[in-house]
Amino acid sequence: MIPEVTVGVDGSAEGLAAAEWAAREAVRRGVALRIVHAWLWQPLDVPVAQDRDVQAKYAHGVLREAETHVAGLCPDLAITSEVVQDTAVAALLREAEASEMLVLGSRGHGAFLGFLLGSCGQEVIAAATRPVVSVRARERQTRQLTGSEVVVGQSGTPYSDAVLGFAFEAAALRGAAVRAVRTWSLPPIYAYGPGSLRLADEAGGLEPFEQKALAEALAPWRERFPDVQVIEQVEMGSAGQVLLSSLSDAQLLVVGRRERRGRVGTRIGSVAHAALHHAPCPVAVVPHN
């Protein structure tokens, strides 16, 4: 495992919140923290006065502010910082590849802030080969240190081990419990009324099947992390909605992501999209492809 947590900052409150979260996570893991700011000098083809030296000074000032802030919070933490001269997406993807995880600031309920403009945040999360954690500014004084659970969505795919492994490790580092959430829905043939539900029960029941599948998926992780309390939650409904309704005591939400490309570009999946835009706690998106 690569021994480093990397955070992207831009001078915003969201970027500073991400730096705080990343610093504390680096301390938990006993690794170094790397702070980066992406800046590429590209004079606009418009009649606007620009000064390269002024912009470069601002870029380095962003790093100094973040480094000074987290050093005050975690004085024994090894910290490095760098202005990365590249486009935002290219710089962040390269940084993610060289780190345990990448941490970014997010406003939520809309586009990502910082040097992630428009669809850039989605592109980074969709293409990164390592976990990306999204943090909001208002978490600096609340979800940063509170919450007794790490909530994880268990999808039932053969790739969910990467997601469960991240969640269990995060919970062990925090002394938190894992709330593993698995959702299910009725097959179309049953989705017509109470009579159809009775037929499902007479056939043995769909929910017991899902409960068994979740227990089997969790078994090796319970064995590997025997001190982590596990709460199993199986519920019928939309995966995104059920996860969001399960975060009342969450310090972190962990979801999986497969890279998908459609006609409108890179996609992150509906569950990750809902989590990133609406979860009240930090969200870790773990790639599993």
From TrEMBL:
InterPro entries: Rossmann-like_a/b/a_fold, Universal_stress_UspA, UspA. Residues 3-136, 150-287 form the UspA domain. Belongs to the universal stress protein A family. It comes from the Bacteria. This is Universal stress protein. It comes from Streptomyces finlayi. PANTHER family: STRESS RESPONSE PROTEIN NHAX (PTHR46268), UNIVERSAL STRESS PROTEIN UP12 (PTHR46268:SF6).
